[in-house]
Amino acid sequence: MVGNLLLRGMLIGVLAGLFAFGFARVFGEPHIDTAIAYEEAAAAASGEPAEEEEELVSRETQAGLGLLTGSVVYGAAIGGLFALVFAFVYGRVVTLTPRATAGLLAIAAFIAVVIAPAMKYPATPPAVGNPETIGERTELFFVMLIVSIIAAVIAVALARRLWSQLGGWNAGIVGGLAFLAIIAIAQYALPTVNEIPEGYSADLIWHFRTSSLGMHAVLWTVIGLGFGAVAERALATRQRGRTA
């Protein structure tokens, strides 16, 4: 059954990747073009000779086939992981219906995997950030991501442990507060990165970051709703097979 759910999860992930690609193509790519134009204008205004770099992949390919491939592969991977987590928690940690379980899991994953890390290390458009620190910035982002996932696991385990004593609502509040406390400590302890050039368009950064979050919201919404529907059908078919 796990293999069946994994396959369905990856297929839903591919569908989610296509939706995310459409959103990024319409709402995200114009901001990247604006950022690139800003970077070129800033370089021209500085009066320094521009460094000629060999273009490995054209901008057109990056915004088209490259973005499509990346979105679909990323969606398939996330969909597969989502299916495995669903197979583990369904009936063990959560006793809701498959659709409700998938929806709740998608919301929790969106908060832990996207929102919490982005609050500390948000996405930045081209021309923002020192190329020499990209390795350090990437490491910090993944540290924040890992801490957020661990905090989510701890919060769920704590809520489940307190469920019988406090009831579902109060146990959920305690788990949520534990998650927020861990995230707050991590965000305070980890170094802040601010490499935005002086005079850079705040409006452009805002729209770039909101479109990035929007793309992830589309991805997780399709996965949560789509996988819940296919998982419910698969589990119902399995149940009918057992009772036949």
TrEMBL record:
Taxonomic lineage from the root: Bacteria, Pseudomonadati, Pseudomonadota, Alphaproteobacteria, Hyphomicrobiales
Domain of life the protein comes from: Bacteria
InterPro entries named in the record: CbtA_put (IPR012666)
Keyword annotations from UniProtKB, A to Z: Membrane, Transmembrane, Transmembrane helix
Keyword Membrane part of the UniProt annotation: yes
Transmembrane portions of the chain: 65-90, 102-120, 140-159, 171-190, 210-231
Stated name of the protein: Cobalt transporter CbtA
Organism listed in the record: Aquamicrobium lusatiense
